[in-house]
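In this section we walk through a basic example: taking a raw amino acid sequence and producing a predicted 3D structure, encoded as discrete structure tokens. The instruction is simple. Fold the sequence below.
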Amino acid sequence: MLESLPLLLMVLSGMATFGVCLGIYTLLGAEADVGERIGSYVGPLSLDDASQYSQRDRRRQPAVARSFSASIAQELARADLRLTVSEFLFLHLVAALACFALGFALSRQAAIGFVFGVVGLFLPRIYVGRRQHQRINAFNSQLADTMMLVGNSLRSGYSLLQSFEVTSREASPPTSEEFARVVREVGLGLSPEQALMNLVRRLDSEDLEMMVTAINVQHEVGGNLARILDSISGTIRQRVRVKGEIRTLTSQQRLTGYIISLLPVVVGGLLFLVNPSYMMRLFSFKQVICMPVIALPIIAGVLMLIGFLVIRKLADIEV
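The resulting token sequence is shown next.
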């Protein structure tokens, strides 16, 4: 333990220094651009057009940095997390530091703490992906009823924007939140077509994209939008029903993939905690036949990952 203490102190001091520097940069940074100022009202993803007016800030950032920042902002918007890119990156650092400290406290081994830290580094990303998945599934399950509500509002004499406002009041989250954001965007100067395209980018739903395409086509060529929405609503209901049946039939296969893939990892982690010296023999560079011993867990991990992806692919049936 005493031999690993200097390494632990070095890692902790380095992370603390990075955190302090990041905090000072955030506090003393330049003033927010147009996208950041209006983002609290319409969401971080919906201001691609507005952010182009901040040319000075865009010139100061490399193209790769802008692309990376835009990608993270898009993921946060789809998960409906009110975090900036710098806050989300700092959350990665905090999670890695906490998991490293937890692993080191449990095992008294710096190597195991490092493994825990690497796992903790991906925890915020996993949480964001899980939240996106849940949010899109909830929206898709409500979309057919939402289109019926919009169609009935149009038959009552409301305009399209007024129908969206009714939907934002009557529907359940996340549908009500997203359509309320569409109404706010139009109120801030965006056209309905731009606001709807921002909605598609935030949710990444094929059914929603079909609805928005129908609305845009009707806006160009005319027609009975309420009847078009009723027809699309029936199609979406059938797709949701078929997807639910497929998910039920393939639930056993998906659960088997998770159990088979996680069981070796869980057993190996428990053995690390019970007898670290025994498991550390797998991570040595001694030659066995024609390769070092450390290649064995690496090859095993790659094969488990391939098996898990194959099971997921077989159970993923498109409708």
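Looking at the output, two observations stand out. The chain is about 80% helix and 0% strand. The longest strand covers residues 287-288. In the next section we compare this with other chains.
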